[in-house]
Amino acid sequence: VGICLICVYRVRHLPASGEVGRWAWIGLFMAELWFSFYWIVTQFVRWNPIYRYTFKHRLSQIYKKEVLPGVDIMVCTADPVIEPPIMVINTVLSVMAYDYPPQKLSIYLSDDGGSEITFYALLQASRFSKHWLPFCKKYRVQPRSPAVYFSTTTVAQPFHDPLMATHWSSIKKLYEDMKKRIDNITELGQISDELRQEHRGFREWDLVSSKRDHQTILQILIDGRDPKVVDADDEGQPLPTLVYLAREKRPQYHHNFKAGALNALIRVSSRISNGPIILNVDCDMYSNNSESVRDALCFFMDEEKGHEIAYVQYPQTFENITKNDIYSSSQRVFYGVELAALDANGGPCYVGTGCFHRRESLCGKKYKKECKVEWKTQNSGKVKESARVLEQTCRVLASCTYEENTQWGKEMGVLYGYPVEDVITGLSIQCRGWKSIYFRPEKKGFIGVAPTTLLQSLVQHKRWSEGDFQIFLSKYCPLVYGHKKIPLQLQISYCCSLLWAPNCLATLYYLVFPSLCIIRGISLFPKLRSLSVLPFAYIIIAKYGYSIVEFLWCGGTLQGWWNDQRMWVFQRSTSYLFGFSETILKMLGFSNSGFVVTAKMADENVSQRHQQEVIEFGAPSPMFKVLATLALINLFSFVGGINKVIIDSKTQVLDQLALQILLCGLLVLINLPVYQGLFFRKDKGRMPTSVTYQSIILAIFAHLVALY
């Protein structure tokens, strides 16, 4: 009703042709129509959120461990500099230590950097796992990432078992020794000839010319397939299979980034272990809950609905989030409300990590009612060849030419052609008739690393918004591709994120034109004493009152909500703007999309400022020029508006321009960190001098244009 009343006001008070401010008024009306439309779309991901619970003890009662399905876990890394090997192997060790029959687990590491340092780190992890896994299971250690566990416990803590203190100290020493060896090699940047003798796999790098030009490197470091010859831990128990893969890279072939790496892993794993369930996690996202596999299987193995489920998506959570989440990286409302409502509307989207897949659905199979699996008679179809033979025969599955003239990347596996390969893959699976599940357990399943600088966050959102908008404009648009395949409410729910990018146009208009019109005294909102101001006031109070309650319900703070609003403005005016522009340019043939790996480690000073919740600028990015210019435009307009109110107090300027000045003042408050970075900070995280000068010139120029 409030929206309709605002529309009526805009139409009834439209300035006459030739009157000053007519086009500014029409532009603002168009922006408000877009906001109204988008608000309606967002309600589809709020109407009926559902939250699920599992009963793992029933799984054990119904299925013995011998008949539990095999689970293939896939970890992807791309650059040993941006994604340090010690972080990668902590993720690997955490998933190796699941409370699940080890002979049913197979862990695959895809190294798209083709780094022998990463291979060395994984080799060290395979040896350490013989001590770490029995320690975890004997003392029920949580979490099972060694780095996280040892950073949160000390020998001074009162252990219930006297022997545990001794065991804890010895395991910690083994871990620290391993970490030191890996860090030394990482810093050195190469493997010595002496270390190369430790494993035959290092010979593969004698043939590597660069990380973008090398043969397939496949090494089975632990072979857990055959119980008779299986590698054992310190307690004599079998270890999970552990495989290293660096797929073939050649300059003349496009490798399709993470999507291509996952498809290579899917094919290689189908020959080695062929687990019916696949879990993929990012290399920085360690397992925080050793029961996550059993939780997921409660859905897949449910006797009534399990056969319909293609994937179970866990939320992304992060360990380096500050109290008030300065960059709004946790996306509390998205994971707390929106994905749960998507689940109710037909199934959540696939978000690229922390997701358990049914192998056959991921490989392109359409859902049929008769495809119900009898888990008690299910055979994983393990190949009987030796590890040496498999290393040779599986190489072709990860070659550059294997996918030529096949459906891989089109109908099979993770789909290609979009920066957000996860969203399009999940949508295509749902359109083949499968259902998906969103599971948000009380104990977090996976914990990763969030961006620690503003630029990292903005670039990440730029990639997401660009990829989502490309999907909306393609044949995979849910309203077209999903027609009669998925429910209408799910089609519209997808549009909530697919339309992130075009939000930039209406937002930029609202950020710029009302402020510039203050200088010329052009009123674009009702007078303060007019009844027409009530719909505007109601919508402001209702919308943001609901937003605050929703954010607090999701576990946030008031300051966190304010930071979230700031990032909302920053993302829409930069990330979405650049994502929108590049999508249009790509459609016109002027631009190509790439994949940017977000840095997982930060400089010590950067990390310190992040912990203190000080926004990091530092880099001379075009995004910062836009932010700074918009902030200064609003600052100049706000000062000019206050000046106009003081000077022209008798002409009721305040009554006419009150809402515009209020909007401008709120934008000034939101941009306070930008002003600090421009003029007051002296640390390396301040706004670069070149950005400061350029933004001042651009803001002054904008005001001159508005005046004349």
Automatic annotation (TrEMBL):
<keyword id="KW-0961">Cell wall biogenesis/degradation</keyword>
<dbReference type="GO" id="GO:0071555">
    <property type="term" value="P:cell wall organization"/>
</dbReference>
<feature type="binding site">
    <location>
        <position position="282"/>
    </location>
    <ligand>
        <name>Mn(2+)</name>
    </ligand>
</feature>
<feature type="transmembrane region" description="Helical">
    <location>
        <begin position="658"/>
        <end position="679"/>
    </location>
</feature>
<dbReference type="Pfam" id="PF03552">
    <property type="entry name" value="Cellulose_synt"/>
</dbReference>
<dbReference type="InterPro" id="IPR029044">
    <property type="entry name" value="Nucleotide-diphossugar_trans"/>
</dbReference>
<keyword id="KW-0812">Transmembrane</keyword>
<keyword id="KW-0808">Transferase</keyword>
<protein>
    <submittedName>
        <fullName>Putative cellulose synthase-like protein E6 isoform X1</fullName>
        <ecNumber>2.4.1.12</ecNumber>
    </submittedName>
</protein>
<dbReference type="GO" id="GO:0000139">
    <property type="term" value="C:Golgi membrane"/>
</dbReference>
<dbReference type="InterPro" id="IPR005150">
    <property type="entry name" value="Cellulose_synth"/>
</dbReference>
<keyword id="KW-0472">Membrane</keyword>
<feature type="binding site">
    <location>
        <position position="83"/>
    </location>
    <ligand>
        <name>UDP-alpha-D-glucose</name>
    </ligand>
</feature>
<comment type="function">
    <text>Thought to be a Golgi-localized beta-glycan synthase that polymerize the backbones of noncellulosic polysaccharides (hemicelluloses) of plant cell wall.</text>
</comment>
<feature type="active site">
    <location>
        <position position="112"/>
    </location>
</feature>
<dbReference type="GO" id="GO:0030244">
    <property type="term" value="P:cellulose biosynthetic process"/>
</dbReference>
<feature type="binding site">
    <location>
        <position position="112"/>
    </location>
    <ligand>
        <name>UDP-alpha-D-glucose</name>
    </ligand>
</feature>
<keyword id="KW-0328">Glycosyltransferase</keyword>
<feature type="transmembrane region" description="Helical">
    <location>
        <begin position="626"/>
        <end position="646"/>
    </location>
</feature>
<keyword id="KW-1133">Transmembrane helix</keyword>
<feature type="transmembrane region" description="Helical">
    <location>
        <begin position="498"/>
        <end position="519"/>
    </location>
</feature>
<feature type="binding site">
    <location>
        <position position="258"/>
    </location>
    <ligand>
        <name>Mn(2+)</name>
    </ligand>
</feature>
<keyword id="KW-0333">Golgi apparatus</keyword>
<feature type="transmembrane region" description="Helical">
    <location>
        <begin position="20"/>
        <end position="41"/>
    </location>
</feature>
<dbReference type="GO" id="GO:0016760">
    <property type="term" value="F:cellulose synthase (UDP-forming) activity"/>
</dbReference>
<feature type="active site">
    <location>
        <position position="422"/>
    </location>
</feature>
<feature type="transmembrane region" description="Helical">
    <location>
        <begin position="531"/>
        <end position="553"/>
    </location>
</feature>
<feature type="transmembrane region" description="Helical">
    <location>
        <begin position="691"/>
        <end position="707"/>
    </location>
</feature>
